[in-house]
Design goal:
By secondary structure, the protein is an all-alpha fold. It is built from ten helices and no strands. The two termini are 40 Å apart.
């Protein structure tokens, strides 16, 4: 069934693009796509946005490689001092056509959005769900206490950019007998920690595990999901993966 809120609908479309919807829900999505023209337009627009960002990132990568090669060529060439050429006639600057101005604005907006998605930090919450904090405290055995200690320590290490300390602690929490909420929260922090440690493939594997789990309990906002997804992609493109 199609989500009612705009936020949930964006999540639904994004999950479809990532092939993360369960089979039955995917059938419902495609039925909605065929029978609802307005929804089809929204999905097409989202796909265009993804394609534009993909093309921009690829162009950026090619541009950086080209710039590096040009610098290498200039470094190898002997420097020759030449007199500057002064043109006999300086053409008057013409007015920029409106369509070029519009295209420039669109490109600038795309660059700004892409820069925000790929460069801005992931939001890491300093507090847990109130329902969890005030929930069942019956789990008090020693192993669970160790798990909770590892969880809070691991989260703190992620927040302070110490992934080498965070990763083993969060991995232990996932293997612990502890409520699913803490396991799921640990998977999210572990994804960020892997990315901090330049382990892009591990980050991608964990992120895919998160997105394909329909019962995932830790709340991650849509924008942070986009940030982590694109930053993983950038890290893999530029070879930052162990």
């Amino acid at each position: 069934m199609r989500p009612k809120t705009a936020y949930e609908q964006l999540e639904w479309i994004d999950a479809y693009f990532q092939n993360a919807l369960p089979p039955q829900e995917r059938i419902e999505f495609e039925d909605e796509l065929r029978t609802n023209p307005e929804f089809a337009k929204e999905v097409a627009f989202m796909q265009q946005v993804e394609d534009v960002v993909d093309d921009f990132l690829l162009a950026e990568m090619v541009s950086e490689i080209h710039a590096e090669k040009v610098q290498e060529w200039h470094a190898e060439e002997p420097r020759v001092h030449e007199a500057p050429v002064v043109p006999l006639h300086q053409p008057a600057a013409g007015r920029v056509p409106w369509w070029k101005w519009s295209a420039g604005m669109a490109a600038a907006a795309t660059i700004a959005f892409t820069s925000y998605i790929t460069l801005s930090p992931i939001e890491l919450h300093d507090s847990l769900s109130q329902t969890i904090r005030g929930g069942d405290n019956s789990i008090s055995e020693q192993p669970s206490r160790v798990c909770f200690e590892n969880f809070y320590a691991g989260r703190s290490f992620v927040m302070t950019q110490q992934p080498e300390q965070a990763i083993p602690r969060l991995q232990q929490v996932i293997d612990c007998e502890v409520r699913p909420y803490f396991k799921d929260a640990s998977k999210w922090y572990l994804t960020v920690a892997y990315l901090q440690a330049d382990q892009a493939q591990q980050a991608e594997n964990m992120y895919q595990e998160i997105t394909k789990n329909p019962d995932f309990q830790y709340d991650i906002n849509w924008l942070d999901k986009q940030k982590i997804r694109w930053q993983i992609r950038i890290a893999k493109w530029f070879g930052k993966s162990n």
